[in-house]
Amino acid sequence: MKVSFSTLGCPNWMWNEITSAALDLGYDGIELRGLGEDLYVPQIKIFQPGNIEKTAAALKRQGLEVSCVASDSLFHEQSYGVENNFPAYIDLAGALGCKYIRVLCDTWGEPGVNVDLELAKKRLAGLAPYAAEKGVTLLVETNGVLSDTKALKGFLESVAHPNVQALWDLNHPVRNFGESPAETWANIGKYVRHIHLKDSVAANGKTVYKMLGYGDLPIAAALELLKESGFGGYLSLEWTKRWNDDLEDAGIVFAHYIYQIKRMLR
C-alpha cells in the first residue's frame, strides 16, 4: 500500500512546500484538494494547459504521484454546474496521470435530507464514458447518506459503469451508521480504489478529528482487511485543516501520520 496526504491539511502552503514535505517525509503521493485560496483545481495556474505538462514532469522526476484529485463538485445538487465544470477535472487528472477523481453525492460527512441521488446517478452515468477515454475512474465517497454502504452498494450497482467505483472514508460509516470495517468491506470492498484516513472520537454527538492513534476508530482492523484483500492503493491522510483551524498544523500531523501508518502496516 502507498501513502499520500491531501492538500486540505496544508491550505497555506505553496506547491513547492507541499512537494518538498512529501519528499522529505517519505510519502508516495499527494492528493489534490485545492491550493491556497483556490478549491477549483483546474483553474490553478500550475495545473492549466501550458503549465500542467511541466508540473507533471516535475512530479515524475521527484518520484511522486497525484494519488487522487478530490473535486469540489456536488453531483446531487442541481445548482452545481457539474456537466460544464467537471470535465475539466477529468482533463486535469488525465494530464497528470492520476487515475482517480473523488466525487461527492451528499454535501457533508453527515447524512443530508432529501438528497437527490437520482440526479447524481444520471450525472455519473453521463460523465463516466469521457472519464474512461482519459483513463480516469470516478470514485464516490462514503460520505453523507452514502456512508451507509449498503446504500452505496446499491447506488454503484445502479450506475453499473467500470469507471465509477468507491472511495472509502473510514470515519463516516463508523460515526454515521455504526458500521464495522468488516461490514463496510463486505458491502463495497470490490469497489474500493482509494482510502481516506484520519482518527476521531465522538463527543457530545459530534465527531472530533484526532491524529492517528489518539481517537478510537477501528483503523487497525481496517488495515488488516486491506492487507488480507491485497489492496495496493493509497492510504491518504485527509486532515481537514482548511475547514478547522483548531486542528494541529500540517508540519506535525503529516510527519506523525506516515510514521504511525508505516508502523501499523509492519
Indicate the low-confidence ranges by residue numbers: none
- Please describe the biggest sheet, giving its number of strands, its sense, and whether it closes into a barrel: 8 strands, parallel, barrel
Overall number of strands = 10
Cα end-to-end separation: 11 Å
* Global mean pLDDT: 96
Structure write-up:
This protein is of the alpha/beta class. The chain is built from 9 helices and 10 strands. The strands form 2 sheets. The chain has an 8-stranded parallel beta barrel, surrounded by 6 helices. It has a two-stranded antiparallel sheet with strand order 8-9. Helix 2 links the parallel strand 2 and strand 3. The chain is globular. The termini are close together. The mean pLDDT is 96.
Compact summary:
This protein has helices at residues 15-25, 52-62, 82-96, 117-133, 149-159, 171-177, 181-188, 219-229, 250-265, and strands at 2-6, 29-32, 65-74, 100-104, 137-141, 164-169, 192-197, 199-203, 206-210, 234-237.
Layout of SSEs?
Layout: E1 2-6, H1 15-25, E2 29-32, H2 52-62, E3 65-74, H3 82-96, E4 100-104, H4 117-133, E5 137-141, H5 149-159, E6 164-169, H6 171-177, H7 181-188, E7 192-197, E8 199-203, E9 206-210, H8 219-229, E10 234-237, H9 250-265
Parallel strand pairs: 1-2, 1-10, 2-3, 3-4, 4-5, 5-6, 6-7, 7-10
Antiparallel strand pairs: 8-9
